[in-house]
Amino acid sequence: MKVYKFGGTSVGSPERLRALIPLISDGELKIVVLSAMAGTTNELAEISGLFSSGDREGAAGRAEQLRARYHAIADELYSSSTWGEKAHDLVDEHFNYIIALFSREFSRHNEKRILARGELLSTAMFHFLLSECGISSLLVPALNFMRIDKDGEPDYFYIRENLKRELAAVKDETLIITQGFICRNVFGETDNLRRGGSDYSATIIGAALTAEEVQIWTDISGMHNNDPRYVSNTKVIRNLSFSEAAELAFFGAKILHPSSINPARMKNIPVRLKNTLEPDDEGTLITSASALKDYTAVAAKDGITAIRIRSDRMLMAYGFMRRIFEAFEAYKTPIDMITTSEVSVSLTIEDPSNLEDIVKMLSSIGMVEVEHDQTIICVVGDFRPDRVGSAPEIFEALNDIPVKMISYGGSENSMSILINTSDKITALRSLGEKLFD
Ligand code: ADP
Ligand code: ASP
Ligand code: MG
């Protein structure tokens, strides 16, 4: 069995939804994971933002605009009035639900219920389309099987058992449709796998069922060697190892959710990145085999906060590191990069929500400095310990840019560099020219 995931652009219009049918209709049993239509989750997040700020009227107005957009999509998508009317009812059901939430208190749980509407709508509308076209399919609600544990990690035992039970209902259908992104948390509440999470849903399902392959269909023909949003002349990488792809995803290559490679790597399931707009292009294949090029790709991750702890007492002392790590552990905040000198430790975090408390705790150890608006540049390539000559090329490219931190030697296939976010585009372009042109 294969798992196919189609992202926002791939389901972003009636035309795109219709174009999916030939891509999945080869008669083989497959699970089709869909994202929300492009722009919907952003719109729902904004609606929920208005709700959280107390502007219920504004939120309701925006929700009505989105409802009207979905009615228009339904009018265009179906040829028969029977399916058109069914879709109108479905759209109303979801938007009435959102509007009804506005009479309650805002909570993070209500926000997640609102965000979930995008995937619930796209999958149900696509299921209707297949039915109208006479293609039998089964819509399996992700909320019946997808679950995260208290640490936010996939609960594989629960997922496998419940997915198996849901799939037992398969009769003649070869297409199983389900929602990406959404899940239940440890309390059974509606939650999600964070933005871009449909990729992660697909690989979690793939791992739970030990699928033959996971295909991630998007709007570009595979992983490129640099960020195509900022750099021209980027080139597709045909083969990547799980580790290389995982580093690129983690360090900002938006084509993949940061955690999405882990489930596939765990079960050694090939992941193929494909383009819905150019379905014949072979895209990128991610397996356990390494590409092993000097330089494979560059990616950038924004929104990083750097923290430096300095104390003369650190000199020749032990136990400091433990105390520093305890502050981050106490507030469940992962550390991305770390470098040390004799009297100071610099590290970076992505999630600043508990920064104030962390800084308070660290202040008992030494002097603390915090810098916001930082970016980690990750160069993926051959960084095995016996390799010579790669660092000079990288630093030559970054000659005019202040380098804040370097992490080298932690991974055999990547090196990370911290810079100011304002220097990101220059850094990506300059590395692109030096390493790939
Ligand atoms: P989807 O909605 O299908 O999940 P995303 O927008 O999440 O699509 O991911 C695809 C986008 O990722 C591309 O359009 C591209 O702009 C961006 N991207 C960033 N870095 C890379 C990269 N290294 N290779 C390919 N695409 C990348
Ligand atoms: N719809 C969700 C988002 O926009 C999940 C996804 O697209 O993968 O983040
Ligand atoms: Mg995505």
How would you explain this protein's 3D organization?
- The protein has helices at 14-24, 40-52, 56-77, 81-101, 108-115, 117-132, 156-167, 198-208, 242-250, 261-267, 320-330, 355-362, 390-397, 424-436; strands at 2-6, 30-34, 137-139, 175-179, 182-184, 190-192, 213-218, 239-241, 271-275, 284-287, 295-310, 335-340, 344-349, 367-381, 405-407, 414-420.
- Helix 13 packs across helix 14.
- 39% of the residues lie in helices and 22% in strands.
- It is of the alpha/beta class and 437 residues long.
- An 8-stranded mixed beta sheet has the order 3-4-2-1-7-9-10-8, with helices on both faces. Strands 12-13-11-14-16-15 form a 6-stranded antiparallel beta sheet.
- The model has no long low-confidence stretch (mean pLDDT 96).
- The chain folds into 2 domains: 2-218, Acetylglutamate kinase-like (Carbamate kinase), CATH 3.40.1160; 296-435, VC0802-like, CATH 3.30.2130.
- It is globular, with a radius of gyration of 23 Å.
- A hairpin with a 3-residue loop joins strand 12 (335-340) and strand 13 (344-349).
- Bound molecules: adenosine-5'-diphosphate (ADP), aspartic acid (ASP) and magnesium ion.
- The site of adenosine-5'-diphosphate has 18 residues, from loops.
